[in-house]
Amino acid sequence: MATTAHLFEEPFDADEYIERLAWRTPGGGSKGGAEAFDPKRLLEEFQNHIEELKQLDEKIQRKVEKLEHQCHREAKEFAHKVQDLQRSNQVAFQHFQELDEHISYVATKVCHLGDQLEGVNTPRQRAVEAQRLMTYFNEFLDGDLRSDVFNNPEKIKEAADIIQKLHLIAQELPFDRFADVKAKIASKYHDLERQLIQEFTAAQRRGEIGRISTEIKSLMCYSAHVKEKLDETRHSDVEQYLKNLYDLYTRTTGLATKLTEFNLGSDKHTFLSKLIKSIFSSYLESYIDMEREYLRTRGAMILQRYYDSKNHQKRPVGAGSIQDLKERIRQRTNLPLGPSIDTHGETFLSPELVVNLLQETRHAFERCHRLSDPSDLPKNAFSIFLLLVDHLCVEHIDYALEIGLSAIPSPDAKNANLYFLDVVQQANSIFHLFDKQFNDQLMPLISSSPKLAECLHKKKEVIEQMEVKLDTGIDRTLNCMVGQMKHILATEQKKTDFRPEDENNVMIQYTTACSKVCAYVSRQVEHVRKSMDGKNVDTVLTELGIRFHRLIHEHLQQYSYSSMGGMLAICDVAEYRRCAKDFRVPLVLQLFDTLHALCNLLVVAPDNLKQVCSGEQLTNLDRNLLHAFVQLRVDYRSARLGRHFS
Question: Which InterPro entries match (predicted)?
């Protein structure tokens, strides 16, 4: 039977294959067959077939090796191609980044150039407009209207725009010196108003004459109505003035929008825009100054009202006095420079105050959006934002952090009340509200202007300043917590706890000191969880857990241990480890697991010391540390335990 690879294709049955080989071999069948059974011949056939199988195997193996070699070669070529593509992609991405940066740079330059051009062009246009109005005013003063605009019926709209502005200017002039010219301007004003109404009525006879005529008359009468409404509160009630200005301007622009629905000519938008500008221009020019002054006064009043309600006189921060110097040194170190300030648990942070400040700022942003010239909008919004930062972040949150830092007791204080975490909790909540207003109301006003970078930088600066003080306060609070634990251990832990007089009569599961420390730690862990959010919880608990472990580790090394005392120390550490589970921080639990394993060295039989030290939890520790724990045993010298570390 010829030996080929296809004979071994699946499904392959070895018994069937041997049977077929024997049956095909002459003399290889059963003895009862036509030909007598010949074992030698069958053996020879098997041997020959085995040789053929070996040759076939070698042939197939060579083919496999060839294919494997080809596969490796192609894999290397493919890997080289992938690397080349990755390098090409990296170069392309770098070019893209450079292009993006260049585009951003050019865009910034273009915006800056536009602002500069606007800054140059606007004053020039105002100067030209002022000169033009002075020329027309002189004509009224002389009593001779020579300009074509006042005598040409086709230029009635231009004349209306001029007389509207002159009418506003005339109302500001003293009556005794300019009575005659004021009367002439008023007469021309009413004359042009009548002409416009008549002309408009004639042109719209086929439309909704009544509605159009009423709205036009209403709009034209706004020179007197707006002035009367705004001037009565401009100096007496700034808050009401700003509300009235916002309301009147909004209603006026709404009326103008309705008028554009009718056929007022091809330049209707320009005409209405000029008309509205002539009515409100004098008020809009001074708007942002009055807005800032109002917010400055209102914010200071809200702050002062809150501190008055607390019977608290604000302490000057950074005034340069000796007391301030001592306080700043005490905040940044653990030096005992006198007692801390007792705030009686008051955080000096008020949700109601914050809501009031944010509410005032929200209204200011709304007014700013409506009343600011588009070119001035980002600048004006930024100035409002700076006032919010000053009142909310500096005068309230930052001040509360300073007071909170001053109120943190020294680490060696007994029965210290730690309120700084409450300050942290409230400061975080307030800053979330501040951040929400930043994103919801300020960002839409500045997102497409260069002021965006300034706002983001200012916000980042505020956050960083707050984080420094928060980190300092949290660090000193953790020191106080550790100091309180140390005080409990110092007063409750006795040397006889770990060297009991009666080794056979120890009935407690763990020492009183351990019980009180664990109870204190559990309360502080819960306090941290309530005061922090997000990853800050794990960060603070990790640091507290590390300091907690370090304290217990150093504390245990102050005592010597009998056999039963060592068992009690193990029970204490087991309880500390159970307390450490509340941290939910793997590193802290691992530290106490290792400490528990170290305490086993206090009770293990001398002959088993090497085996225990080689255990999974202790094998990577410094031999000196292991030796130090073994030296705490009372039988260290008598049992010659030091030889295990020589």
Answer: Sec10-like (IPR009976), Sec10_HB (IPR048627), Sec10_N (IPR048625)
User: Within 10 A of 172 (CB to CB), how many other CB atoms are there?
Assistant: 9
- Phi first, then psi, for residue 352 (nearest 5°) are -65, -45
Residue 258 makes CB contacts below 8 A (sequence gap 6+) with: 215
> Mean pLDDT for each 10-residue chunk of the chain (646 residues)?
58 76 70 64 83 87 91 91 90 88 85 78 81 85 82 78 79 78 82 71 55 49 69 85 90 79 62 77 90 95 93 71 53 51 78 95 95 92 96 94 90 81 92 94 92 94 93 93 94 88 71 94 94 91 96 93 90 94 94 92 84 82 85 78 58
Contacts of 501 (CB under 8 A, 6+ apart): none
- Give the ranges where 310-396 is alpha helix by DSSP (H): 322-332, 351-371, 377-388
Tell me the C-alpha distance between 5 and 276, whole Å: 97
Are 83 and 34 in contact, with CB atoms under 8 Å apart? Answer: no
Tokens at 51, concatenated: 């040789």
Of 422, 409, 434, 429, the closest CA to residue 348 belongs to 422
pTM above 0.90, yes or no: no
Residue 258 CA to residue 246 CA, distance in Å, equals: 18
- Cα atoms in the Cβ-side hemisphere of radius 13 Å centred on 570: 14
Report DSSP state, residue 416.
Answer: -
